[in-house]
Known about the structure:
Number of strands: 11
Organism: Streptomyces glaucosporus
Pfam families: NTP_transferase
Structural class: alpha/beta
InterPro entries: Mannose-1P_guanyltransferase, NTP_transferase_dom, Nucleotide-diphossugar_trans
Helix content: 25-40%
Protein name: Nucleotidyltransferase family protein
Oligomer: single chain
Amino acid sequence: MTLDAQFAHIHPTQAVVLAGGQGSRLRPYTDDRPKPMVEIPGTGTPIIGHQLDWLAAEGVTDVVISCGHLAEVLQEWLDTTELPLKVTTVVEKEPLGRGGGLKYAAASLPRPDEPWYATNGDIWTRFSLREMSEFHAERDATATVALARPRIPWGAVETDEFGHVLDFIEAPPSPYLINAGVYVFSAPFTAMLPDRGDHERTTFPRLARERALAGYQIPQGAYWRAIDTAKDLTEAARELAGHSRSR
């Protein structure tokens, strides 16, 4: 195996982005565009644009985007935008579910015998995919899931064992890790995906029982946000502005 081939088997150079959701909770922003085409206020760039920049910066050269709802809007933007990597789009003729959508898109990856990244199309994040893929390789995992610890949207109250209030904590980190919607998959994983349905209810539980599913915690301080609602857009813009001022 050449050095380039060894590198590719540790650090993937191809990825799938799931961009077919309707984004009903983001209406009216998604009335005329798919969810990944919603712009982050103050950036002039849609969510998918931020994702492609991030993937390219992490060494990805080829991306397959799985489209669905208002696919033509996304395709037009891709056709008229200077992109940092090669992009292929596939359109689901009918909803296949997340697992089926991944399998359908993965069939168009240029190097089926190599590992690949995948990400949900509504994630805006920045962390080292190279470190995540090394974590994946060290554990000889079939699949690795990025895990995030989001902040609880409510204030928390700390008490002692007698019920005395000790402190009020605004939006503390959750005690639980969640699926961050970013993955590393070994090449054999593609065949394990369902033709239709959700891989998190079929393939992942099976791999977990076999100890072939790994969980990579996004490093503390790395940026991660799922853009699900208008409030998420507002907070992402505020966080971006705060980051810019602190630099």
